[in-house]
Structures are given as C-alpha cells and as structure tokens.
Amino acid sequence: MSAQNTNQETQGRMDSEKPRDTMNRRDFSRTLFAGGVLSALTLITVPDRAEAWLDGNFSNREDLGDALKVIEKTYGDIDPYPHKFNDALSKLLLRDLDFAARKGIEKEFVEDYVARLGVLVNKHLKKGVDKFGDDVFLWAMFERTSCGYQLYEYIDIKKGKRSVPCPFKPMLNHLAEELGTLKIVWEDVCSKWCTPTWNGFIKGAGLTERINIKVEPGDICTIKVI
Amino acid sequence: MTQVSRRTFGKQTILFSAFAALSFPGKAMAFLDKIEKKKFLYRDDIGYAMKSLFMTYDGTSKYLHKFNDVVGKTQLRSLQFHINNGLEKEYVDHYIEIMEPALQRIKQQVETEGTEKGLSSLFEDNPSAYQLFERINVNPNQRSFPCPYKDLLHYCETYLKTFPMKWEEVCSKWCTPTWTGFAQKIGIQVSVHPGETCEVKLVSQS
Description:
The complex is a heterodimer of chains A (226) and B (206).
Chain A: H1 3-16, H2 25-35, H3 37-45, H4 64-75, H5 87-103, H6 106-117, H7 119-132, H8 135-141, H9 146-149, E1 156-158, E2 161-165, H10 168-178, H11 186-204, E3 213-216, E4 220-225
Helix pairs in contact in A: 2-3, 3-7, 5-10, 6-11, 7-8
Chain B: H1 6-23, H2 25-32, H3 34-37, H4 46-57, H5 69-84, H6 88-98, H7 100-113, H8 115-122, H9 127-130, E1 137-139, E2 142-146, H10 149-160, H11 167-186, E3 190-193, E4 197-202
Antiparallel strand pairs in B: 1-2, 2-4, 3-4
Helix pairs in contact in B: 1-2, 5-10, 6-11, 7-8
C-alpha cells in the first residue's frame, strides 16, 4: 500500500468520523499514529492540508548513505567515551545553557526557544488536547517531534507519561572530565532548561488551565501529566 | 587438466587462504583482529540510533528531514536569539573559551604531527562536526562540506517565519569567527569560503 493511499484513507476516515466523548485505546492509538497529531490538528483547522508524518518514504531516500556513515563513525568512536547519535546536540544545548546562565538570561533564552521553534505547536496543540486528551501534549513534546527522537536515545511511552534516558547527565560528566570549563551543573539543566521549556510549551499553547506536568529528573527522566 | 568443481574450487581457495594466513602470524593476527578492531560491532546500543534514523528519514513532509536537522535548527535558533540581543560575539567567544583545554591538546598534536592534524581535529575527528555536516570531504589542506544551515534557515523562515536573519549572517557571525578562533588557538590559520558547499582551507604560514 503506497504512502499516498494510506494518507488518503486516513484523511477520509477522519473526515467521516464524528468526535466522540469516549474513545477506546485502539481508536485513540489509530487516530493519533495513523495520521500524526499535527496532521490531525491541521485537519481540524484546515481539512485540505493534512500532512503526513512517518510517511513511508524511508526506502525512497537516496541520502541514507551519508547518515549510515555517520552512525558507523559515531558508534565506532569509543574514545574517550562511547559516542552516541545525540552527542553533538546535547553538547550544543549544554553549551548554550551555560552561556545563557552566565549572562543571567536563561529565562529569556527558554521563552525565545518556545516562541521561535514552537509556532506550529502553539497554534495547534490545544485543539488536539481538547479533542484527544492530555496525552497529546506528551506525544507532541516527545515522539512526534525530531526535537525528541534526535535528542533522546529512546522514549518510553505510557499513557500520561514519558520516560527518557537523560541525555545531559552523562554528557556533563564527559565534559567535566574533558574540559572542566562549564559552570552549569546537572540540576541547572533540569531547572533552567528542560522543565521550563516544557512548561513554556504548555503556556504557549494556552493549556495552563488544563495541563500540569510533574518532572522527575534522574538517569531516566520521567514526565507525567497530572 | 584435472576438472575441479566449483564447490571444490571454493573450498580449496578458503583453505589455502587460511593456511597462508597461519604461515604468516602477523598477517593472521591482522585477519583475525578485523572484528576486534571494529568497535562499532561491539556496541549494544546501535538499535536506538537506527530507530532514530528511521524516524528521521521516513519523514518527508514539507522537506527531506536529515540526521542533522535538530542540531542545525538549534544552532540557528541560538544564533538568532543572540543576534537579537547583540550578544553574538560573546556567544562565539564563550564557545572558544570553554573549549580551551581541548584546543590546547590539539595544539600540541599540531606541533608534532603537522597542520593537517589541526583540520582533522576540527572536522572529521570531531563528533560536533561530523554529526552536523552531512558529509565531510577531506583533501590535503582543505575540508569541504554541504552547508547545514542554508536550507534549514530557508525552511525555518518559510514554515515558522521566526528567523529573520540572513544566511550570510550565519557565515559571518557564527561559522567563520568560530573556526578562525579555534584555528588561532591551535596554531594554524584558515580561510573560510562559504557556499552551498562550504570550504575551509589552511592558509600557508611561510
């Protein structure tokens, strides 16, 4: 079945379904994952413009070779520590936070991140949450976005909860050994970056009346909608 | 001439190779060590990387997503913020400053191994580079790579409309000062030639 047929079938199904007050787990999953939340959200607002996520074009990509070479290079590099695919990104975020914290502008730095990169989330997320429930918020923050699956080594998904290995704790330790020049500590990352960023998206999407999150930082970080 | 079946020929070839290898212990060790030397093959966590790769490359909506999407966008976002606040120079200076210990180690290697070591340390041997650039072309005294920012900036401005900076500012306010700053610290001099394929060249120091 081609990706296009799947998308058309999904769009047709969603157009014909009426919203329901209750939705069983199978329908919930199918609704979310068949078309993607943002495509569902855009259907709600602009039915003609459903866009696909995980649209089945992996095998048509001609640029996979470069990506595979980077994976081989990354995972063959164990000196001075076993490198992972999210190394560069986690180092960048830590470096950025260190600079912002030194300048005392970490709050503005987070607000800018939410406003500048969260345009689509801020625009559509509330409708999705209203329609499909609070878990959509976590879906949008984690497995739906490349900002999630290119940062977290894996995302453990349970309804109302996501757990991820903290990408920053081990990297901070590596940087402390290699460089010893960053001033932030791990608790700063949780309190000045991760938690305020997630709360920033709740606020940006107009969901402060509806959604509260509880963040349990750790080697495995857990984020729950409460 | 004796007729040899294809199966027998193959079997005999493999046996001959093994005997030849055993006759030359050095070569045998090189042969037997092949898997040992490929650290990649010992990693238990590659599956996670492959899943992330799949999710990235299966997404073609709006544009072809790549492994360096988020690191590129994150860098652009930070640069835009610091430009807006007049802090771009300090942002670059901070990066160079926190890298000082590593840069000093590289400087020592450059002094013993030559200027190419400087380029390799900044690019193909540096995870922050090879996880940012889709590929790095290695030539003597020169490295080149597709610019990760040009297309991403275009997509960000087109779809998000929150990135007013020009691509030339990425080159002039981020990449060039960062590389030239690193190069100065490690005792080499480089020239940067921005483009869809960006080139960084060693400047001869005679």
